[in-house]
Amino acid sequence: MNKGLLTIAATLTIGLIAGCGGDGSMHATSATMSGAVADGYLVGATVFLDRDGNYRLDAGEPTAITDVNGAYTLKVDAADVGAYPIVAMAIKGVTVDKDSNQPVLNSYILSMPRESVSGTVSSNFISPMSTLIRELMATGNYTMQQAMDQLRTQLGLPVGVDMMADFLRDPDNANYRAMHTAAQNMAALMGSQMSQVLSTSGSTTNVDVNRYRGMMGTIFSNISSVRGSDSDSRSAMSNLMGSMMGDLENMTPGQPFRNMSTSFRGGMMGGGAGNGYRGAMMRPATASGAMM
């Protein structure tokens, strides 16, 4: 064999070895995604890369449990970074909220949009803020920047505040304190409705995506009334919990997925959220899942 052929053969062999595991099988290039989960930092929350968008941890999806600082690291294929959303599940009686150092009273689901997922160390902060931004984007009516701007406006925060930031990192920042309070209230509202959103079949927990998105739309539409810690906000939260429960009960569970744009009011969809309760305005789906 001449030297040219030997060189080509050696080059091909090195390339194959670089792409193989010790058993000779091919492996994709790996990467890590890390960050934290919070309304207050959540310890013992389940975090996963939601490859099929069903808000449920399925076999084969990369997963991790948050540590004592609410931090997590997911090991994924490099091609997965920015391709799928990250979801976090706070589990009733298991996950501890460091705001109170007590287990959460109800399960609830947080997430962040795939468009903001990064391979940069500790950059993927999952919170009620990132969750609402993702759900606004899921309506198809908002870019990520528009969704952040809408949420910032609803919370009465000044231009320039990063709505995806870790609002716990600087307790002296007044804007971050306001975000923290709003996040605590949003998590409480979400937890109060999970009996309408989650169901179990054997050892599997299922999420009714339509009910979940209807709930998030109603929270967004009323967030300006329930964002604070004063008595008016607490009263509005209590009223909203009861109203949402009735709305969600009226949605037939397990319907085909449909666009929940009408649930998100107070932004581009029309009108600002006032002090009164704004319902989800849900319309029935056709058999194909399209809006009627």
Keywords:
disordered N terminus; Immunoglobulin-like; disordered C terminus; 2 domains; 292 residues; 4-stranded antiparallel beta sheet; 6 helices; 12 strands; alpha+beta; globular; 3-stranded mixed beta sheet; 17% strand
Brief sketch in words of this structure:
With about 290 residues, the protein is an alpha+beta fold.
Can you offer a commentary on this structure?
The protein is α+β, with helices and mostly antiparallel strands and 292 residues long. The model is unreliable at 1-26 and 267-292 (pLDDT under 50). Helix 4 packs parallel to helix 6 (231-249). The protein folds into two domains: 31-125, Immunoglobulin-like (Sandwich), CATH 2.60.40; 127-287, no CATH class. The strands form four sheets. A four-stranded antiparallel sheet has the order 4-3-6-9. Strands 5-1-10 form a three-stranded mixed sheet. A three-stranded antiparallel sheet has the order 2-7-8, with no helix packed on it. The radius of gyration is 22 Å and the shape is globular. The chain is built from six helices and twelve strands. The chain has helices spanning 3-18, 128-138, 144-154, 174-197, 209-222, 231-249; strands at residues 30-37, 42-43, 46-49, 63-65, 71-77, 86-90, 96-97, 102-103, 108-112, 124-126, 198-201, 204-207.
Largest sheet: 4 strands, antiparallel
The tally of strands reads: 12
Give the mean pLDDT: 83
User: Widest sheet: strand order?
Assistant: 4-3-6-9
Note the overall shape: globular
Helicity range: 25-40%
Quaternary structure type: single chain
The percentage of residues in β strands lies in 15-25%
- N-to-C order of helices and strands: HEEEEEEEEEEHHHEEHH
Number of helices: 6
Question: Radius of gyration, rounded?
Answer: 22 Å
Instruction: Please give the alpha-carbon distance between the first and last residues.
Output: 72 Å
Structural class: alpha+beta
Structurally, the number of domains stands at: 2
Q: Low-confidence parts, pLDDT < 50 over ≥5 residues?
A: 1-26, 267-292
